[in-house]
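Q: Here's a chain of 301 amino acids. Please give me its 3D structure as tokens.
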Amino acid sequence: MNIIKFAKEYPNEESCRKHFKEQREAEGVTCKNCGETKQWWFQKKEFWKCAGCGFRTTLRSGTMMKNSNLPFYQWYMAIAFMSFSKKGISACELQRQMEHKNYDTVWSLMHRIRAAMGERDARYTLEDMAEFDEAYVPIATPEKVRNNLKRGKGSQRVRNVAVAAESVPLENIETGETSRACRYFKMLVVDGHGADAVEEIVAENVAKDAVIFSDKSSSYTNFSDYVDAHITVKSTKKATKKTLQWVHIAIANLKRNLLGVYHRVNDKYLQNYLHEFCYKLNRRYFGDRLFDRVVVAVIDY
């Protein structure tokens, strides 16, 4: 999806509402009162009526758009700009493109979309083989105290983020060399620096029958309790390029993305930025379908 195609397919509010209705019906509209899936659509009032109990479901109810007064066209415009490029867009720039008067409204809209992206990715676990490492991501700190804050591990200038990548082995038939192709990423803010916080992330996001690769950090010693096998390698330049290749590529791209687009991000909302980055990274080959997938994430929140 690019700006020209978006302008042709969604020129007004009516076209956006029509598409949103079609996507909701494709996902299935379920009555939250009785659980009935058979619904009757009333065009003039724009709601579904349950065939079982008569309960009414509006276009927005049960989706991320509930309680939002913004037009569908503005929601669609925000989704479009957020999915046009893999590097994303700042709230200030989106406000300018939408010609919206209130920055806070646009900023809140973007974070609601990011939350929907994160909820969608949270449904999946990493399987087969997974690489695991941590990254220290710079966060916004008050300028007056920035230079007096502690550096390194435990610093208030950075936030600890767990990065995991599901990979599959690939063998070059001609040379016989083995490499890995990455299928899926997860990035989660770690609450603290102890082993318990990291182990909880592994237990919730990596399948029990998976094999996990990591460096020899003392925080990773009990990973074998949560997965089928845990293979550790010494943290070297070779290990970075071979065994833990994809997590380090993802970390480098994440930091470059946050620095280039947002400069610094607030610690409180860092996880939402990670949701957006991973959601688009995991669907990097979707092309034009990415826009529709974000719409579905907003619907099925």
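Q: Can you summarize the key feature?
A: The chain is about 40% helix and 20% strand.
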